[in-house]
Here is the input.
Amino acid sequence: MKVFLSWSGEKSKAAAEAFRRWLPCVLQSVRPWMSDRDIGAGARWGLEVGRALEQTKFGILFVTDTNFSAPWLLFEAGALAKTLNEAFVCPYLVGLEPEAIPAGPLTQFQAKRAVKGGTLDLVNTLNRALGDQALPDETLQTIFEKFWSDLETALRALPGGASPPTQPREVGEMVAEILGVVRGLANVEQRGSEDSDFLALKWSIQKNDGLDATDLEIRLSMTHLDVNDKYILRQINDYYSGP
Here is the structure.
């Protein structure tokens, strides 16, 4: 079973990498996937991520105190949630309490804290998602107890989250990647007019250096876009509108 690991920022990435190394020690039937490690040189980023999202059954979002509003993390959460009806999505809170997450796309999911109890709950859910390949509960508990200290040590050694990434990504690059994933996730028959609505509004925002907030909300209300796509467009508009 492929497990999609979503991250944004230095601390989140380090946590995802630690979890990526650790999880197969506990559940040998899972294949963790994260973009920075599993895309070959020269691969088309949006297409590769789109394919990974289509093939995954479980997504884990590595949420920290500096990235819970990051547009790309929220987009991947929405993409995971609508890829398959049976998909599981879990925000994994690194140094963060559930009540610290503001109302938005992430709050629709059942979050787990990156502590022993929360991680065991997450692993148990992953194990149930394996179906016939699931380990017996007692066996899983024994393996988890054996390997938990390795992940705990790695989580305690994470870099601080107060500073932004050394090389922040340009919003234009991020938008291009978002659109690439959208195209990879759904064909014309599945999305109908939603792709054209998204592209038309995104183009209008860029052309006008941002839209008036009221105008944007009126235009959004006239589309069939879901809550995650609308959130992304609001973030793009905020960027182009400036302070």
Remarks:
- The chain has a mean pLDDT of 78.
- The longest strand covers residues 58-63.
